[in-house]
Amino acid sequence: MTDLVVQPPQSATWQVHLDRSMWVGGVRGLMLQALHPLAMLGVWQNSNFQDDPFGRLRRTADFVGRVTFGSPEEADEIGRRVRGIHRTLRIRDPETGRTHRVDDPELLLWVHCAEVSSYLEVARRGGLGLTERQADRYLREQRTSAGYVGLHPEDVPGSCAELAAYFKQVRPQLRVTPEAVSAVRFLLWPKLPRELRLLSPGKPVYFPFGALCYYTLPGWARRMYGLLPEVPQATVTAALKTFRLGLNSLPEPVHDLAFMPATRRMLQGARERLGAAGYDVGKGLKGLTDPRRWPKTAA
């Protein structure tokens, strides 16, 4: 299996990363990441986030897809590309005058933990039935993804308890900066990339989605931002479950239109490799979360 995809269909990672709640988790992760002043400055100074925040989400989806469903060669290639880009970038802190590396391990670890915690929390809250043991397994598996961006897997939280301890440790370093506020506002009302401009007339319906992402943030993060009035969390959970149910009902070819063309080609390659290996891909990659679609040797 290791020569087909990085993470096999038997992994906890497939259960989480094939769940359509990942779109909420991805935006929530960006909102959470923005609370680290240096990490937010790194994005602000070295990307076109101000012009295309949705594009950054799609590029993140491409990375996550390749280190989950791509071949080992595809994952290695994008890992080298990301590490190479990060190696050349610097962050200028106007308050201290210091210059920091984008690939500073502490910053990479923050981005990783904010991201995977968001994917896991949103999926479970939305109704994905993962046990605590499976949630721990997911975080252990995500150490592989952390390795692609240059982190040492042993330095990355590999359980829910370790992740909670990490957030407790890092919270004193977090604060709301003007860049963080602007980032969240962009995410609540984003500029669509050129290839999706045909959807612009429906843009007003995006705000409820952005608000849903915001309201799934931890309470301490929402209190720090204070950008939207609080609503009952039971209402947020119900809305998240409804959103997840609706997106999970979309046929895979329709859902995949949200990805960049290169990501769609990578996913098609994964279907072809797995189909040739005896997996029943008649219902796409998402169908492979059902063990009955695996070859007997993989069960």
UniProtKB/TrEMBL annotation:
Broad EC category: oxidoreductase
Organism superkingdom: Bacteria
EC number: 1.-.-.-
Name of the molecule in the record: Oxygenase MpaB family protein
GO molecular function: oxidoreductase activity
UniProt organism field: Nonomuraea salmonea
Keyword set, alphabetical order: Oxidoreductase
Residue ranges occupied by any ER-bound oxygenase mpaB/mpaB'/Rubber oxygenase catalytic domain in the UniProt entry: 14-239
